[in-house]
Design goal:
Elements (H helix, E strand, L loop, with lengths): L2 H9 L17 E2 L5 E5 L4 H6 L6 H13 L7 E4 L13 H18 L3 E4 L2 H10 L10 H4 L4 E3 L2 E3 L6 H5 L4 H9 L1 H4 L10 H7 L5 H8 L7 H7 L21
Parallel strand pairs: 2-3, 2-4, 4-6
Antiparallel strand pairs: 1-3, 5-6
Helix pairs in contact: 3-8
Bound molecules: iron/sulfur cluster.
Length: about 250
């Protein structure tokens, strides 16, 4: 199936009760080949009325968070877990998520993002369960926000929804710092083509998790990356976390 065909299905969908109260069923927006996909919960009222994503107050917060990360909307793909407005901004019901999630599943298949960033509790819970990652209870929720998980050949990076900042300004430093990492995920490490890690991996001597977590994921957290940047010598067999694997020697 093509994304345009899927979007046609979304626009006329009548699979759940939300089709009776919505104005627009919202399709995803952005680069159809993006490395990074944001998954929000559902459209807000302005989005429902005008048929576009993140054009209300949450959208302004999103832009304020993406700007410092160096991320433009046009280079990512944005979509929702539930495609229709939830009246009075209520929570999505289980049967509504069940009816709608097949569209998100298809979008992930078609766009093939390297990193998926679910925004807010319901999107996070759905994506973690889809990739068979443990979902913590409410008290452990803070611990998974802004952490990169690997599953199904993808990075999963849970984030608070931008609307959280509209209700609680004290979250600003934490949200700015976690969203800033999205800019890192847009490209793989510039040293990757010549990095010994690439050659060890190609030779079957290095677990692919190192590559997914650092070289094609969060290269900014790689010790080797910073040593390369500042010209500090380091052994070929030093791993991205700074430890040395003597087994890789020679
Ligand atoms: S190991 Fe570090 S420096 Fe080498 S390509 Fe991966 S992220 Fe970049």
């Amino acid at each position: 199936m093509r994304l345009s065909d899927l979007n046609e299905q979304i626009r006329v969908c009548g699979r759940c009760r939300l089709s009776q109260t919505r104005v627009h069923a919202l399709c995803g927006e952005g680069d159809r080949r993006a490395r990074l996909m944001l998954v929000a919960q559902a459209p807000g009222q302005k989005e429902d009325l005008e048929g576009a994503m993140f054009i209300g107050p949450s959208g302004r917060v999103l832009d304020d968070l993406l700007g410092p990360a160096g991320v433009r909307r046009s280079e990512i793909y944005m979509t929702n877990l539930v495609k229709c407005f939830l009246p009075r901004y209520r929570k999505p019901k289980a049967d509504e998520i069940q009816a709608c999630c097949r569209y998100l599943d298809e979008e992930i298949e078609l766009v093939e993002p390297a990193v998926i960033a679910p925004l807010g509790y319901f999107a996070i819970r759905y994506v973690l369960e889809k990739y068979e990652l443990p979902m913590p209870d409410k008290s452990g929720f803070d611990n998974i926000v802004g952490r990169l998980f690997l599953a199904g050949g993808k990075g999963i990076y849970p984030l608070r929804h931008p609307s959280a900042l509209l209700h609680n300004r004290s979250l600003q430093p934490q949200m700015e710092s976690t969203y800033r990492k999205l800019g890192v995920f847009l490209s793989e490490c510039k040293w990757y083509p010549v990095c010994p890690m690439k050659f060890y991996h190609r030779a079957g001597r290095l677990d692919s998790e190192w590559i997914e977590r650092y070289c094609r994921g969060d290269f900014e957290s790689c010790v080797r990356f910073h040593m390369e940047e500042s010209g500090v010598p380091h052994p070929d067999w030093m791993l991205p976390d700074g430890s040395e694997d003597e087994g890789l020697r020679d």
